[in-house]
Amino acid sequence: MAWVRDTGILFVTLLLFWLMLAGSLASDVLITGALVSLAIALLFRDGLSFFTELRPTLAAITTGFRYYGYFLRELVRSNFRLAAIVLSPSLPIEPAIVKVRTRLKSRMGRLMLANSITLTPGTLTVEMEGEWLYVHWVNAETTDTEEATARIVAGFESYLEVMYG
Amino acid sequence: MAEFLDILGGLLMAAGAAFLLFGGIGLVRMPDLYNRIQAGTKTTTLGTLLVLAGVACIEPSWGWKLLLIGLFLLFTNPLSSQVLARAAHRNKVPMAASTKVDRLAQDHGGES
To answer: Is residue A62 part of a domain?
Structure first.
């Protein structure tokens, strides 16, 4: 009965979002939110949500916070690097699409990895096929798969592995 | 205290606007669609997050809602960029001449 649990998780997440947005616990707000959340959760039964497949361990949660810290730092770095590229007159780019591999198995883990790659310095996930990701790299330092995996994927993977597996 | 938060909020919003400006410059200067998407995604994400953080400093009671908007952006911004890039590549949108290698085209060589 895995789908009951998944639907339940999606329902609770949606309801939580609704309540935070509405900012009120009045019964009409609560009932409307619950009905709509339930309908969406049932319609998108195998959809992903924030907490889908998150491992229910303390380590997963603390790693989650550290992951966001690391992620925000990378996002800021990526913005400064991009600003430096677009503002320099010679536009120093060396684009390439490289292939990288992930050890992550869960759907949510892979989704988060692809998203993280897109928001970090110079990389953009273009296509995903099973364990292979194709990544567009503005400043390709290497075109070798192993090398690229170590540089692009490894940082996030170690966090996401603990969170989602 | 409120004054300090107002100033901090204003500074954060200015920083966000600056990153958005760099993104705009990137859109004009980058040589091909894929590099443009790169410029667009990263700057709009951080730029908008900074603007939201600035608003949160000036109007702290909106904090929760702004946090939600921020989370929503973090999830949807990269996704839409990835889907755009993928659709472009499948439709064989040309890459800049300076592109070193395209492993995706190599792996799907010949088929169209």
So the answer is: yes
Whole-angstrom Cα distance, residue A15 to residue A9? 10
Going from the first residue of chain B to its last (112 residues), give the mean pLDDT of each consecutive group of 10, the final group possibly shorter.
Answer: 86 93 89 86 90 91 86 86 87 77 71 42
Nearest to A79 among B42, B82, B98 (CB): B42
Q: Within this chain, do residues A68 and A98 fall inside the same structural domain, yes or no? A: yes
Does residue A50 belong to any structural domain of this protein?
A: no
A87 contacts B82? CB cut-off 8 A: no
> Which residue reads 């060589």 in tokens?
B109
- CA B46 to chain A, closest CA, distance in angstroms equals 7
More confident residue, A141 or A82: A82
A14 interaction partners in chain B (CB closer than 8 Å): none
CB proximity B103 to A under 8 Å: yes
Residues A34 and A64 in one domain: no
Taking CA atoms, A15 is separated from A27, A41, A47, A80, A105, in Å, by 13, 10, 15, 37, 28
